[in-house]
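[Meeting: bench + compute handoff]

Bench side (C.D.) handed over the final construct sequence. Compute side (W.E.) agreed to return the predicted structure before the next meeting so the bench team could plan truncations. Sequence as handed over:
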Amino acid sequence: MTLGEHLAELRRRVVISVFAFAVGATVAFIIYPQILHFLQAPYCRVVGRGHSCSLYVTAPLDGLSLRIKLSTYGGMFLASPVYLWELWRFITPGLHANEKRYAVPFVVSSIVLFAFGAYLAFVAFPHALVFLQNIGGPTLKQIYNPNSYLGLIVALMLVFGLTFEFPVILVSLELVGVLTPRRLASVRRWAIVGIVVFAAVITPSGDPFSMLALAVPMYVFYEASILIGRFLHR
């Protein structure tokens, strides 16, 4: 294919992805009450049954901006399989047979790890809320703005999901020869320190529960990457 044909192919893939996002965002806009109820569940678990877990808006346009924001996030999430498929179809003709053999496991593992990371953030979020409520003292009354609350939980799920791609990156670097399993094993102590510092800095909520929920799996992934790298080199 010529450069012009490549650009035309890329344009077609981008147009399909944008259309998929528009459809996904429309669906998310329609099912907005269900999405809001799902994301509000951690807060409701913290306050317990019999207590109100309502979120309070302080401006007339907050409700509209919140619905648009959640529709945008929902559209990106619902259309993500289409993004990955179009990206896969665009790069597949340029891959050799052995590269295609590795590509599918990497794509599947990336999706699974991202989903697992987002789910772990969702599970750990109630503990983060309890810590953040108690750290200010018993005299403070908690009234949450939905934009701040949902911005925090979405950011936490996104950070966890992206960070859980850590083993995919390490194994990729091992396959291309940038890193070796022996090298990773030799700097294990420094890796533990770096992982803990990284988790403390990157965690949006800043609480120790979320930091540990991020740091412990990252270290497990680090050790797993060493074992996978040794297996692949054999």
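W.E. noted at the follow-up: The CA atoms of residues 13 and 185 lie 41 Å apart. C.D. will use this when planning the next construct.
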